[in-house]
């Protein structure tokens, strides 16, 4: 596996033109700025030669001055280009990386999201990207500058005076030492900072999104303890990082200060003993002071580099995650679907060695409507999730029209299946956007038709803004039943051959439910449908009922058959009336 | 069935149209927070001034070294000034270390204090506040905004202060070296000011675009990830989402580059001006040297001070831009800290031990926005009564629960518990004795048992196991991979929806509350388990007042009384049997849901 740096670098190299332009501009710009002290030196020597003579030649001075000004202009312009290209490079890399990450996230299957915290993913697509952007756009370009400046300055310094150069760089090993020590100390701190900060985010997220329970149960003190604990950690880590950082920069300054004292004194002796011209010494010191900035920005670079590597490794970690559900290379396009569904000895679970479904087999004919009932946590939703291949079974097969779903292109499989999940998700946007979620270019009358079947059209149409009414991210201002019906409309709009409904009426009142069931009944007339429900009145949609118990299908038949059998179904069914019966008995 | 009309509240990120606090006010407020760290701030100011003075002093000593040491061929002077330079460097190091450390400390402490302040505020704010703003927006105030303030505000404000010192110091130094040269150079001043102001304005506009695009990108990611399970159910969505994400990403990129172009002009333009200033020094200074009015050393020193002057000016100008985003962030934080809770504790609120648990609502008027959910609403719940509330979706059942638990206050009328207006009861005292099972089960990242314990933080494992047993949920819990100690992932994603509800029920009951509200607490639980819970509830709810909201009418059997709510009005009320006999709305609902089955049973039983 390549290191994060190498991989990041590969992204940069892909932007060949930008990278090349940046490098060219950098080199030219630095060369231009390096010429400045050169001109200054000549000038100083010239001015010295004037001392006391009184014969001031304006035209020579103006020549020097205009040479300087044009150098400034040129280097300023190059600096602008430099900044522009480095920003362009960084933005392009970030853009590519972001889109890659985002697309990859779209492909990762449910199993991945079961294990990871969404806050951490969001941190990766935002904060971490910024860190990397800053690294490439700023630190990397500074580094290139530092290196180039360094090389050029040393060459010039050597050409002015080799001896002085050696004196000036006597402290270089010390500098390297400081940087290395620092480097070693901060790496673990930065790594831990990332983890602690992402945990801190999680606590806040839970606290804010669970506010209903927090307020109703007065949980604020519990969360305060947890929150302050994380906030303390964040604070501690950042302060201990600051301890190291606040030693580093001044130390670099100190070392370069000492270097220039050495040069002053040593060079001074040489000037006095006439082995060095004063102009050379001044020029030497000017060039030497040019190294201050690159050295300090090298210090910055180290920190940003470490930060960026932590961020990059987090991003690549996600990019390297393999989707558990993968399309086979020779997967076929599923064109027409009749709607036969078969489970052949399917075993599946979420946690190793704890199967939720244990060797399930059943067949559903095209156009058949089947209900699945069973106890809480018996695996009903799990069965539905295996059909569009959100998970793959451990063993056994799921077949549609006799074809194993693993042999089919994922997108073509899911195109034929409409699913209403048990927990409804409302996106921010308008009600219309939410219904047309899977088909954004749907026509208005299609949308209205879907809303009508879902029994939500009347409600929407008497809102002042109707279908254009905005709803917040979690649909917070809609009541439970309103949200559920929007989810139903969303799936219906897709006009799928196979419809999977997971407890679609759990939040509907009896009357609304009756109407929705009536409308759905018509809709699914010639489609295959699987309905998971706890409501007897919704069971009316089905021709046949599968009863799931502890991960196995224990009964299979029509309502009447199962009731007369007196098994699990009968128990489930009758328990709704257990108490009613008593009441009724009193009534009669 | 008709729904009451609504206006949905929708608050976007850039809340618009409100009077903004002025920049000066914001800065003052930030400073007032920083000023509290007196000791460290003084150390910071001292060490920073010291390093600035030393910085300013260095070229001066360098000049002495050249003029009096080297030019005068005076080795003693040379060594003396050399040692002086070295000790300045060393003192500068000490000052630098303390300056950097104190600055970081103050910054981090400020962030810590802001976070603490915000949390304390969040404890006072009511539920209504949180449900009116997108959760992502509030979360980013706690995280991104605080950090943005930290990144620029403290260091920026203080740097600006120091930079201004440096600028003033450099000016004084230049004046003292050669006032004629200084004045000549200062002809450039209007140009500098003009450049800074023009660029600052443009870049601020450009960065505003960047910020709003980045906000868009963040919400897009946020939503895509939270809704990923839904997204993957729609095969077209991948293409749509990736396309729209790429579009936003591209816009972020373009906005950034545009801003860079604007701000990138700053340096070259300043360079140009600097070049002009240097040209003046050379020509005019060279002239002064030639007539003996200036020394070559002073010219070199003058040049160093000039650099010291231009560096900070450019920095101050650049800072002014980045500071804008810190100010925007600070503003959002202060907005939060200043928010007025609409549910507040009266100053004379009492600690009420709820004895009977009698609840009354008297002439209550309530609306979320402008359309009332309740008007002149009256209801009396007897001590220890179990009241079932049924009715069409959107009728106001959850809203009723919100009012009784004082998650919202009614605009008119009053609600009492045991005859005391709930606004006169300490909020903490009320909360301690009430419990809610929300319509949408809420789970935290913790174990199953940990989640239940949120109901009563001091409950022991045994008590919780016992509660589970009494609810008849042992078997269900045992089936989880690690039973009660199974870890719950974000939002309870690794539990079935029914299991999530059961945990919420257990959490509410472990509290031992006097008043319980069950809002569709078992809507996704299978009928058998539900009947077990009902049996258990019958015992558990003795001597407690309980409001059961349910669409599934099998749930209402427990109730002593049923009310049917429609459009915020009670249209029917009575016992289950009375209502069935009445043959009204309730009977119709019942018929629709359970009618056929009841007939079947009746037939079966004779
Ligand atoms: N935070 C809110 N802001 C604005 N309007 C709201 C808010 N919460 C609910 N509403 C609206 O107030 C009305 C009553 O909602 P409520 O949640 O009380 O209904 P409900 O009877 O509980 O319905 P359901 O059975 O579907 O849960 C609904 O029309 C809903 O759209
Ligand atoms: N993503 C997941 N990760 C781990 N375990 C899971 C996950 N989803 C479900 N489970 C577990 O698998 C079992 C079956 O869950 P499933 O959601 O299929 O039940 P269900 O029959 O739909 O129940 P309900 O009627 O409550 O909706 C449960 O014990 C649940 O805890
Ligand atoms: Mg389920
Ligand atoms: Mg409700």
List the helices and strands and how they pair.
The complex is a heterodimer of chains A (588) and B (606).
Chain A: H1 4-14, H2 16-50, H3 58-107, H4 110-115, H5 118-125, H6 127-160, H7 162-168, H8 172-209, H9 211-216, H10 220-272, H11 278-290, H12 292-320, E1 341-348, E2 357-364, E3 369-374, H13 380-386, E4 395-400, E5 403-404, H14 410-415, E6 417-420, E7 429-430, H15 431-435, H16 444-453, H17 457-461, E8 470-471, H18 480-493, E9 498-502, H19 510-523, E10 528-532, H20 536-539, E11 544-549, E12 552-557, H21 559-565, H22 568-575, H23 578-587
Parallel strand pairs in A: 3-10, 3-11, 6-9, 9-10
Antiparallel strand pairs in A: 1-2, 1-4, 4-5, 7-8, 11-12
Helix pairs in contact in A: 2-3, 2-6, 2-11, 3-6, 6-7, 6-11, 6-12, 7-10, 8-10, 8-12, 10-11, 10-12, 16-18
Chain B: H1 23-34, H2 38-70, H3 75-124, H4 127-132, H5 135-177, H6 179-185, H7 189-226, H8 228-231, H9 237-264, H10 266-290, H11 296-338, E1 359-367, E2 372-381, E3 386-390, H12 397-404, E4 412-417, E5 420-421, H13 427-432, E6 434-437, H14 448-453, H15 461-470, H16 474-478, H17 497-509, E7 515-519, H18 527-540, E8 545-549, E9 561-566, E10 569-574, H19 576-582, H20 585-604
Parallel strand pairs in B: 3-8, 3-9, 6-7, 7-8
Antiparallel strand pairs in B: 1-2, 1-4, 4-5, 9-10
Helix pairs in contact in B: 2-3, 2-5, 2-11, 3-5, 3-11, 5-6, 5-11, 7-9, 7-10, 7-11, 10-11, 19-20
The structure holds adenosine-5'-triphosphate (ATP) (2 copies) and magnesium ion (2 copies).
């Amino acid at each position: 596996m390549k290191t994060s740096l190498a991989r990041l670098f590969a992204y940069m190299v892909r932007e060949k033109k930008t990278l090349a332009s940046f490098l060219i501009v950098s080199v030219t710009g630095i060369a231009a700025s390096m010429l400045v002290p050169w001109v200054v030196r000549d000038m100083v020597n010239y001015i010295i030669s004037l001392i006391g003579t009184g014969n001031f030649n304006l035209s020579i001075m103006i020549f020097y001055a205009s040479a300087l000004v044009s150098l400034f202009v040129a280097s300023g312009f190059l600096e602008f280009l430099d900044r522009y290209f480095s920003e362009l490079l960084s933005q392009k890399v970030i853009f590519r990386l972001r889109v890659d990450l985002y697309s990859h996230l779209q492909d990762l299957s449910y199993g991945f999201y079961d294990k990871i915290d969404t806050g951490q993913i969001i941190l990766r697509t935002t904060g971490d990207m910024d860190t990397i952007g800053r690294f490439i756009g700023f630190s990397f370009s500074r580094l290139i500058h530092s290196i180039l400046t360094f090389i050029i300055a040393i060459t010039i310094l050597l050409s002015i005076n080799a001896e002085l150069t050696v004196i000036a760089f006597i402290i270089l090993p010390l500098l390297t030492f400081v940087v290395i020590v620092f480097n070693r100390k901060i790496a673990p701190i930065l790594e831990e900072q990332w983890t602690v900060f992402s945990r801190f985010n999680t606590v806040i997220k839970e606290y804010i999104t669970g506010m209903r329970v927090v307020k109703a149960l007065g949980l604020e003190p519990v969360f305060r303890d947890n929150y302050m604990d994380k906030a303390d950690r964040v604070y501690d880590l950042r302060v201990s990082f600051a301890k190291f950082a606040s030693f580093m920069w001044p130390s670099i300054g100190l070392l370069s200060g000492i270097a220039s004292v050495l040069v002053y004194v040593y060079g001074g002796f040489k000037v006095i003993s006439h082995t060095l011209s004063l102009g050379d010494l001044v020029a030497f010191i000017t060039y030497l002071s040019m190294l201050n900035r690159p050295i300090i920005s090298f210090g910055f670079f180290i920190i940003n580099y470490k930060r960026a590597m932590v961020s990059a490794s987090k991003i690549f970690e996600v990019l390297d995650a393999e989707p558990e559900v993968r399309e086979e290379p020779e997967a076929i396009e599923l064109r027409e679907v009749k709607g036969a569904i078969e489970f052949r000895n399917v075993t599946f679970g979420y946690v190793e060695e704890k199967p939720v479904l244990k060797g399930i087999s059943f067949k559903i004919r095209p156009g058949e409507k089947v209900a699945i009932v069973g106890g809480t946590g018996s695996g009903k939703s799990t069965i539905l999730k295996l059909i569009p291949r959100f998970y793959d079974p451990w063993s056994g097969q799921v077949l549609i029209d006799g074809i194993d779903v693993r042999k089919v292109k994922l997108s073509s499989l899911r195109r034929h299946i409409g699913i209403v999940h048990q927990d409804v998700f409302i996106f921010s946007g308008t009600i219309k956007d939410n219904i047309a979620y899977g088909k954004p270019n749907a026509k208005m009358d299609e949308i209205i038709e879907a809303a009508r079947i879902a029994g939500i059209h009347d409600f929407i149409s008497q809102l002042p803004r109707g279908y254009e009414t905005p709803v917040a991210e979690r649909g917070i201002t809609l009541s439970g039943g309103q949200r559920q019906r929007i989810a139903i409309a969303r799936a219906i709009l897709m006009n799928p051959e196979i419809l999977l409904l997971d407890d679609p009426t759990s939040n509907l009142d009896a009357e609304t439910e009756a109407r929705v069931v009536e409308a759905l009944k018509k809709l699914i007339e010639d489609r295959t449908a699987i309905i998971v429900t706890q409501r007897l009145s919704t069971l009316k949609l089905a021709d046949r009922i599968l009863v799931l118990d502890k991960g196995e299908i224990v009964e299979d038949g029509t309502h009447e058959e199962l009731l007369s059998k007196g098994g699990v179904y009968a128990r489930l069914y009758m328990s709704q009336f257990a108490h009613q019966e008593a009441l009724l008995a009193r009534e009669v | 069935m008709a729904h009451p009309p609504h206006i949905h509240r929708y608050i976007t990120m850039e809340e618009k149209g409100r009077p903004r606090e002025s920049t000066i006010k914001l800065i003052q407020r930030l400073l007032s927070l920083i000023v509290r760290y007196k000791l460290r701030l003084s150390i910071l100011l001292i060490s920073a001034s010291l390093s600035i003075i030393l910085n300013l002093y260095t070229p001066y000593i360098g000049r002495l070294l050249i003029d009096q040491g080297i030019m005068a061929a005076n080795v003693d002077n040379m060594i003396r000034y050399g040692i002086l330079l070295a000790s300045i460097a060393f003192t500068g190091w000490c000052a630098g270390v303390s300056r950097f450390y104190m600055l970081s400390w103050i910054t981090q402490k400020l962030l810590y204090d802001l976070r603490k302040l915000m949390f304390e505020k969040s404890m006072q704010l009511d539920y209504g506040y949180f449900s009116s703003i997108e959760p992502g927006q509030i979360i980013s105030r706690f995280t991104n905004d605080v950090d943005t303030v930290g990144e620029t505000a403290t260091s920026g404000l203080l740097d600006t202060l120091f930079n201004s010192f440096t600028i003033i110091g450099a000016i004084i130094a230049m004046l003292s070296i050669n006032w004629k040269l200084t004045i000549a150079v200062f002809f450039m001043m209007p140009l500098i000011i003009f450049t800074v102001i023009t660029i600052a304005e443009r870049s601020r506009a450009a960065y505003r675009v960047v910020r709003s695009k980045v906000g868009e990108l963040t919400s897009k990611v946020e939503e895509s990830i939270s809704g990923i399970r839904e997204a993957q159910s729609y095969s077209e969505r991948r293409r749509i989402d990736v396309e729209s994400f790429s579009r936003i990403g591209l816009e972020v990129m373009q906005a950034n580059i545009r801003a860079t172009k604007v701000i990138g002009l700053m340096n070259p333009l300043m360079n140009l001006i600097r070049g002009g200033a240097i040209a003046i020094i050379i020509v005019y200074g060279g002239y002064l040297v030639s007539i003996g009015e200036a020394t070559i050393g002073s010219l070199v020193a003058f040049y160093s001070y000039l650099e010291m002057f231009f560096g900070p000016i450019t920095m101050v100008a650049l800072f002014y831009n980045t500071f804008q985003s810190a100010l925007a962030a600070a503003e959002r934080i202060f907005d939060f800290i200043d928010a007025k809770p609409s549910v507040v504790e009266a100053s004379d609120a009492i600690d009420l031990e709820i004895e009977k648990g009698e609840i009354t609502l008297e002439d209550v008027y309530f609306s979320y926005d402008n359309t009332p959910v309740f008007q002149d609403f009256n209801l009396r719940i007897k001590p220890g009564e179990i009241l079932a509330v049924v009715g069409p979706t959107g009728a106001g059942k959850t809203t009723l629960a919100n009012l009784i638990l004082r998650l919202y206050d009614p605009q008119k009328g009053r609600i009492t518990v045991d005859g005391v207006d709930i606004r006169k009861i300490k909020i903490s005292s009320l909360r301690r004795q009430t419990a809610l099972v929300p319509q949408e089960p809420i789970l935290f990242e913790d174990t199953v048992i940990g989640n239940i314990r949120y109901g009563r933080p001091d409950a022991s494992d045994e008590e919780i196991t016992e509660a589970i047993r009494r609810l008849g949920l042992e078997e269900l819990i045992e089936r989880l991979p690690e039973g009660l100690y199974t870890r719950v992932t974000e939002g309870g994603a690794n539990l079935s929806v029914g299991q999530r509800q059961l945990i919420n029920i257990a959490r509410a009951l472990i509290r031992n509350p006097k008043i319980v509200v069950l809002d569709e607490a078992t809507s996704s639980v299978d009928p058998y388990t539900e009947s077990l819970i009902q049996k258990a509830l019958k015992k558990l709810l003795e001597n407690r007042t309980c409001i059961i909201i349910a669409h599934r009418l099998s749930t209402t059997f427990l109730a002593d009384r049923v009310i049917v709510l429609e459009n915020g009005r009670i249209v029917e009320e009575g016992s289950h049997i009375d209502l069935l006999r009445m043959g009204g709305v309730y009977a119709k609902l019942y018929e629709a849901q359970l009618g056929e089955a009841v007939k079947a049973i009746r037939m079966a039983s004779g």
